[in-house]
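**Sequence with structure:**
===
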Amino acid sequence: TSGKTVKVFLKLESGMGRYGLPSAELIQLADAAAKLPAIKIIGVSTNLADSSNHDSELTQKQFAEFSSLALGDFNFEYSGIENSGGLLYNHHEKYNLVRVGIVLYGVSPNGKLPDGIEPVMSLKSRIVQLKKWPAGRPIGYGGHYTPKRDSLIATIPLGYADGYPWALSNKGIALVGGKRVPVVGRVCMDALMLDVTDVPLAKSGDEVVLMGRQGAETISAEEIAAAAGSFPYELISCFADRLPRIYVE
């Protein structure tokens, strides 16, 4: 009644079991919507359920079903089926939209990145305190780590409230001075501790890399997620808003 036209996308349910309508119902909806002057259908999309698998029969079935709709009689202006895995491993140039996610961060959906794609996201902090710690004295909540040697312990102001997995207590790795050092004791809400005994020149203010590269060493999102019993999508999604974001070219 206002004279305005609403541009809409259709969503095909092709095998994901999440959003959208099956082909027959979607065609009926499109036919009905085409008769309404206030609605203009400009595109159609669906979501691949197994795109990281090169030989997935489900993916091929989804492509076939989507093609019959997207390239059929409706003449959609936009059509898109590919997510990160689809773009990397099952790319079809006949569609003009992609819905990428994790690959924007240079992280692979299945642990394998093509040449030329590198991780672009790092998680960094700094040492705020160093202390000498005697062998045999427990560290952290519950005393779940006890060093077997006199140690140099660094405190980092970053914890599970920032999205660093609590599951990495006594399991995580960080980079200090270009060397891999272990997370010791339980990860706290706002802090964690590192054993930097093997980095004797470490000092307060030194950079700590929890994800990313330092010198010749790298800690990937895949490595962190595997150690935490998670997967990279969850890890990257859970970094807290309170973490400063620094964008670099």
